[in-house]
Q: What sequence folds into this?
């Protein structure tokens, strides 16, 4: 199997792909980027926590006009994964309002974005409808 | 400390395409017109605050070099789409601090023909994947981990409201846009002044569902400028100047406080609600006292949520509020009678002063065909994503 690299460092690959967050040890606020401190309580200690893979579509937009090089259409969405909000594309379903609806149940899914010269596959995540 | 602050002179240029004018021409036109409107000159001005978000910086000094170099302090400000309001508030703060008794604020932008704002163009996928940035991403996130462009971001903001409270639809958002385009037919300074049918709006090019092109703010050129003065100084000026002066009953700027999800989808709600709450307290008026509102309809999906955020309706009641006709110019709380950003246009740094010009125009009874009769109190609101929110409440002079 080809060597793989996650598209973002908060995506953990393997048998059960999932997202991880930096959770503030003081207040529990969760972040998906490298932190200097907590934006909520200003604490500086964080632990890595696993994020649920099943959730609900809280908002979306079907983007049909984007910057050069960005493939359209795609469905941008905000998903509530067990109380933690995450941004990602809705995938594995037609990008139209008949197939993408507010409140729909979704789960994390991964796909290969591309392969570099060394044969490493970049793997991204998205959210697919739970039928 | 100055007890009260007034708009003495204010002006916006025609919004639209100005191929023969550069940013300094547009800014100078607005600034000189605002000074003339207030009956003063650069000699009277003690502070200049200026913004030009997409330009190279130093717009304040460039303006001075064309209209008057008097050695006063210049503050070049940038605060996304709230840049104009930030410039105005900077001048107001200097007067409140007692550093001077009169200030000039200018916002200017040249955006005609600009395409999408924000969102990174993507280079070809690299030869070697290397994580970089705060998310350790091997390529740009825009388009592959949601959207970063404004039409999609604000679409999600409107859709989130729909998810929370229900009642939204593509057609509902399109009808908000229809209202603003209809309003713009009475505004000769608007970039676009044509009414559009619901069919035209919904059938136009889709940018980011549910926002079609006419439901997005119009990129255009334009400038706006305001002269602000302390009440003490105003009382030494002519009766005519005092009669036309408009009271700044509240001037508030907020940023977005931390909440769950706010770093995932910008939360434009809480900072607007916070700014509005403070502004109503400062002014001693309530939403029911407002005769007109200019709010930041950068997209049709944004206007809806701000009905709620500015407390023009009960919490969760924005859809019913719009359906009641309240926000049309004939309704109980006319919103964006200028045509709003969707039709009047959105030259970014000018917007936060141009919306105040619109309110002042009505409070002075000078708005011609689109005059809201008997207007005494108005509110102007802007949001700069990132985020910054400016709210100003303005009141007609009692003289």
A:
């Amino acid at each position: 199997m080809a060597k793989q690299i996650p598209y973002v460092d908060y995506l953990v690959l393997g048998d059960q792909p999932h997202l991880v967050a930096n959770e503030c040890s003081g207040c529990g606020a969760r972040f998906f980027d490298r932190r200097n401190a907590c934006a909520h309580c200003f604490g500086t200690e964080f632990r890595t926590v696993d994020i649920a893979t099943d959730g609900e579509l809280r908002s979306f937009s079907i983007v049909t006009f984007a910057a050069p090089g960005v493939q359209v259409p795609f469905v941008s969405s905000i998903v509530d994964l067990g109380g933690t909000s995450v941004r990602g594309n809705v995938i594995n379903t037609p990008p139209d309002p008949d197939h993408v609806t507010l409140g729909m149940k979704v789960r994390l899914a991964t796909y290969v974005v591309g392969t570099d010269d060394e044969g490493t596959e970049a793997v991204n995540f998205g959210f697919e409808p739970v039928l | 400390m100055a007890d009260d602050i007034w708009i003495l002179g204010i002006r916006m240029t025609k919004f639209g395409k100005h191929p023969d004018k550069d940013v300094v021409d547009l800014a100078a036109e607005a600034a000189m017109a605002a000074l003339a409107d207030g009956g003063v000159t650069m000699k009277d001005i003690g502070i200049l605050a200026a913004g030009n978000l997409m330009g190279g910086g130093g717009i304040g000094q460039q303006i001075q070099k064309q209209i008057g170099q008097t050695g006063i302090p210049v503050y070049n400000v940038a605060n996304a789409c709230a840049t104009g309001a930030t410039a105005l508030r900077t001048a107001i703060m200097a007067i409140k601090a007692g550093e001077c008794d009169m200030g000039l604020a200018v916002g200017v932008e040249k955006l005609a023909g600009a395409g999408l704002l924000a969102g990174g163009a993507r280079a070809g996928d690299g030869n070697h994947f290397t994580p970089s940035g705060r998310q350790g991403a091997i390529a740009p996130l825009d388009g592959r981990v949601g959207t970063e462009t404004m039409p999609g971001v604000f679409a999600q903001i409107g859709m989130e409201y729909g998810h929370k409270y229900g009642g939204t639809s593509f057609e509902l958002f399109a009808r908000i846009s229809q209202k603003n385009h209809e309003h713009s037919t009475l505004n000769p300074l608007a970039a676009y002044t044509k009414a559009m049918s619901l069919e035209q709006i919904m059938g136009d090019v889709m940018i980011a569902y549910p926002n079609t092109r006419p439901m997005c703010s119009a990129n255009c050129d334009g400038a706006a400028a305001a002269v602000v003065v302390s009440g003490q100084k105003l009382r030494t000026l002519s009766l005519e100047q005092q009669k036309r002066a408009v009271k700044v009953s509240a001037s508030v700027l907020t940023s977005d406080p931390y909440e769950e999800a706010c770093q995932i989808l910008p939360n434009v709600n809480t900072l607007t609600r916070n700014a509005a709450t403070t502004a109503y307290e400062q002014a001693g008026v309530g939403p029911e006292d407002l005769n007109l509102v200019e709010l930041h309809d950068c997209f049709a999906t944004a206007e809806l949520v701000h009905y709620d955020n500015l407390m023009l309706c009960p919490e969760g009641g924005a859809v019913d509020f719009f359906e009641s006709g309240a926000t049309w110019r004939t309704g109980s709380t006319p919103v964006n009678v200028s045509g709003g950003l969707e039709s009047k246009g959105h030259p970014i740094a000018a917007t936060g002063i141009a919306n105040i010009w619109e309110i002042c125009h009505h409070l002075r009874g000078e708005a011609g065909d689109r005059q809201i009769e008997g207007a005494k109190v108005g509110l102007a609101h802007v949001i700069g994503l990132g985020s910054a929110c400016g709210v100003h409440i303005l009141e007609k002079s009692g003289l």
